[in-house]
Every structure is written in structure tokens, then in C-alpha cells.
Amino acid sequence: MRRALGILLIPVMLAVPAATGAAGGPTTTTTLGQTLTKPPATSPPLDARMRNFFIGLATNNNDLAISAFLPQSAYVVIKSGSNNAADWKYRLIDHDFIPQLNTLRRQFGPDLATATYVGYHVNEGSAHICPVGREQNKAPYWQVYMTTIDFTMKGVSRHLTVNTMIGWRGGWFIVHVIGYG
């Protein structure tokens, strides 16, 4: 580990698609650092992720909603254990995230499809660093609970709560919508 400009850099090895490769094509290895800089409560990338999450939820577009989820490549880097890529896909996405989206769709009903996204609020008071080993992680990360997403449905102000977001390289990403498991 080293510090650069007051930021703790934790070297990790991560396979990323090669510049000329297509999906499933060749990969190269690069070193990326997980930063311990607290992610901001608002930022243009987070604004886009939260909007995409809500629009994906409302329009039954799971791929768009997943774009706000912690990337698989980040999960593989920060979590300990074996076969983290499969755990991300089959446990976090297929077993938790998608069913939780469907639960919210049932909860809000068919009018959700016509809802209008208003914004979000990150509960900064709950933000904390999750140290190595606390949640089967091999790298520390920021974690925040109970982020709210505001929207209107049939002219009535509503909100939903995102249970947990994790900080990855200075940005917040959803990991649990309704709760754990």
C-alpha cells in the first residue's frame, strides 16, 4: 500500500478487456487502486447511476438498473473467497438484486411504469469504512445505508430506500436494495 496525494492506494490486479478486444475477447492485466476517499453524496456519475437504476426499475429494464450496481470487477477485487465472479452473478444479481427489483415492482404496482424520477439522498450520517475482514472483504471500502430515491407517481410524492451502497474508486454503487439475502 502507498499514499499518493493523501489517498491510500491499495494495489490490486484486475483483468480488463483489451483495448482492441470485443466482449469475451482477449484480456490484459492492469493495476488499479481502491481509494479510501469518501465518495461524495452527489456527483454527475452517481446522478446518472441513480437515475438509471430508477428508470430500469420503473420500465422493467433490469440491465439498466444493474448499471447502478457495484461492478463485478470491483466485487472480485474487494471480496475474499473463491469464484467471486460467479458469486456476484448468481447470488448478488440473480438471487438478490433481480428478485428485489421485482418485489418493488409489485409493491408500487403498474403505475410505477409512469412514475417520474425526482432525485436521491445519500444518508451520509451512516457512511463508514468497512475494514478488511468485516464482511468477507480483502480490501477496505466505504459503505452507506438507507439512501432514498424520490419520485412522483400519479402526482403523489413517493420514495423508496436502497439498503446498502459500497464505495468503489470514489463513487457509490448499489449492493443491496431491500436487504441482505
Keywords:
29% helix, alpha+beta, globular, five-stranded antiparallel sheet, three-stranded antiparallel sheet
Describe it for me?
The chain is of the alpha+beta class. The chain has one domain. 29% of the residues lie in helices and 35% in strands. The strands form 2 sheets. Strands 4, 5, 6, 7 and 8 form a 5-stranded antiparallel sheet that branches. α3 crosses α4. The longest helix is centred in the middle third of the chain and has 25 residues, at 84-108.
Q: Secondary structure elements and their pairing?
A:
Blueprint: E1 2-4, E2 7-17, E3 27-34, H1 44-58, H2 62-66, H3 72-78, H4 84-108, E4 116-121, E5 128-130, E6 141-153, E7 156-168, E8 171-176
Antiparallel strand pairs: 1-2, 2-3, 4-6, 5-6, 6-7, 7-8
